Amino acid sequence: MRATHVLAITHVGPDGDALGSLTAVGQAMQQLGKRVTLVCDDGSLNRFKYLALSDRIQTERESNIPYDLLFVVDCGDETRMGKAFTTLPNPKPFIINVDHHITNTLFGDINLVDPEATSTTEILYSLFADLGISLTTDLALSLLTGLVTDTLGFRTVGVTARTMKIASNLMEVGADLSLVTMQGLNSKPFATLQMWRTGLNKTRLESGLIWTSISKRDLGAIHYTSSGSAGLVNLLANVDEAVMSAVLMEMQDGSIRVGLRCRPPYSVSELAVNLGGGGHPLAAGCTLDGPLARAESLVVDMCKEMIQQQSSPLHDRSR
Ligand SMILES: [Mn+2]
């Protein structure tokens, strides 16, 4: 790798896999003697402060550095990078796209995209081994964070013996599983519970779809600043009577963030793509224009239609 100035970017509204991947790339590049800048439009999250280089994650990149390599992690398409990418001058640096979303648009010059991988850090684990990067405890902790958070603690469809083997190898060099589980999955600010309460109050269940929407005003009243539903959409997806769940959140700028989940054999990835987003078969999302009520009726109609379509015996469930 000849690059000297490496820029690494992960997606807006970062999660554990995003931040684990970003800090892992940072550490790997440092090992290779590269200068590296880590950028996420929304910065890092408090509960992931234990990650090495978490304090080096910037919300904006310096404008005067001539980056010759761009590492993009956990982003299904370029728009997921937000301003971090759109503000980059042309020509853009050489792009390495590392991701596990089935809807990935292969926007990189090199695309390390594996939808079978349970997390982006699982792909990085193999890449780093190929590059001869040594697995320090800190690096292992970053990689394990992606594995644990994206699989909700090794509980999702797609977790394989290989996933467990990698996790085991990471623990062998000192990555603390209980720390990652506590910080990555369990720990949450009080504002998150208040957001859940607001969302749960408005939850509706119809035709196999369970959903809720939360307005900008409601979020402002509890000082909730994150753009994600912090697990509310997963909570709803576990309701027995539902097969699909949706959470709509109105952001400060008026756009609507939509999280979608479902249980096999249903899939939400196509639905998300049709709405301009992307994701995995069982977990996907998109961003829509407001107003909230219009976005809600659009999402609800499309989800119900998808449930009906995918419930039909003609639907190919092997996909
Ligand atoms: Mn991920």
Shape: globular
Strand % is 15-25%
Approximately how much helix is present in the residues? 25-40%
Mean pLDDT: 94
Bound molecules: manganese (II) ion
**Strand elements, count:** 12
Radius of gyration: 19 Å
Say what oligomer this is.
single chain
User: First CA to last CA: what distance?
Assistant: 38 Å
CATH topology of the largest domain: inorganic pyrophosphatase (n-terminal core)
Short description:
The chain folds into 2 domains: 5-186, inorganic pyrophosphatase (n-terminal core) (Alpha-Beta Complex), CATH 3.90.1640.10; 190-311, Diaminopimelate Epimerase, Chain A, domain 1. It is α/β, with parallel strands linked by helices and 319 residues long. It has 11 helices and 12 strands.
Features:
single chain, 319 residues, Diaminopimelate Epimerase, Chain A, domain 1, 6-stranded parallel β-sheet, 11 helices, globular, binds manganese (II) ion
Q: How would you describe this structure to a colleague?
A:
With 319 residues, this protein is of the alpha/beta class. The protein folds into 2 domains: 5-186, inorganic pyrophosphatase (n-terminal core); 190-311, Diaminopimelate Epimerase, Chain A, domain 1. It has 11 helices and 12 strands. A 6-stranded parallel beta sheet has the order 3-2-1-4-5-6. β7 and β8 form a beta hairpin. The two termini are 38 Å apart. Manganese (II) ion (MN) binds next to loops.
